[in-house]
């Protein structure tokens, strides 16, 4: 498989890790869109939100628990932040591996278009 996020999760490609446990990796985005821009991924390959099912859905809860820790660690919990997951071509999903963007550290635009 030639998935860049799988390679990052397997430490084949370096990243700036901000959180890691047995199932999840969170790292700084290489092209940040906000002062805080972190990607949170499951270490096991799940292509997108469309492939979440009863066998792997617990990872999403674990990811959101990790997000809660990360935003506190990054000092954006109180000021606010955005969590985004793009899905499919029209949703501009650039890497076919489930991932969530955490954006914060400034007042974000109210529009998403």
UniProtKB/TrEMBL annotation:
<dbReference type="InterPro" id="IPR001310">
    <property type="entry name" value="Histidine_triad_HIT"/>
</dbReference>
<protein>
    <submittedName>
        <fullName>Histidine triad (HIT) family protein</fullName>
    </submittedName>
</protein>
<dbReference type="InterPro" id="IPR036265">
    <property type="entry name" value="HIT-like_sf"/>
</dbReference>
<dbReference type="InterPro" id="IPR011146">
    <property type="entry name" value="HIT-like"/>
</dbReference>
<feature type="short sequence motif" description="Histidine triad motif">
    <location>
        <begin position="97"/>
        <end position="101"/>
    </location>
</feature>
<dbReference type="Pfam" id="PF11969">
    <property type="entry name" value="DcpS_C"/>
</dbReference>
<dbReference type="InterPro" id="IPR019808">
    <property type="entry name" value="Histidine_triad_CS"/>
</dbReference>
<feature type="domain" description="HIT">
    <location>
        <begin position="4"/>
        <end position="113"/>
    </location>
</feature>
């Amino acid at each position: 498989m030639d998935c860049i996020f799988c390679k990052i999760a397997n430490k084949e490609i370096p990243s700036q890790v901000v959180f890691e446990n047995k199932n999840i990796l969170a790292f700084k985005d290489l092209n940040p869109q906000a002062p805080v821009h972190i990607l949170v991924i499951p270490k096991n390959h799940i292509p997108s939100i469309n492939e979440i099912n009863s066998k792997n859905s617990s990872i999403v809860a674990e990811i959101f628990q990790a997000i809660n820790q990360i935003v506190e660690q990054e000092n954006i919990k109180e000021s606010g932040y955005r969590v985004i997951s793009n899905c499919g071509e029209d949703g501009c999903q650039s890497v076919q591996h489930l991932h969530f963007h955490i954006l914060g550290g400034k007042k974000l635009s109210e529009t998403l278009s």
